[in-house]
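Support request, please re-run this one:
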Amino acid sequence: MPGFHELIRAEKPVLIDFYAEWCGPCRMMVPILEQLKKMIGDKATIIKIDVDKNPEAAEKYKVRGVPILMVLKQGDLRWRQSGVVPADHLKMIIELHT
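Re-run finished. Output below.
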């Protein structure tokens, strides 16, 4: 499986969900991301990053609160939003970047 740096530099968009186990809104994103995966199939890669276990990634992307969702493509940040985001909105964002 490709590593993180290869994934975010790929042609396919990558949705990153920065979360924490203790975060209530982050837990709300779990079924939303499962629904999104069914909606988009392999149009994008979805990655979840636990900020407590990966503080370097959180620092690199200036994550100060969770959940934070980002779309990267070819290594470039294309979209970023904090809070709970509905699956249909995430699908629209991903389709803008495919």
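Helices lie at 4-8, 24-40, 55-60, 87-96. Residues 24-40 form the longest helix (17 residues).
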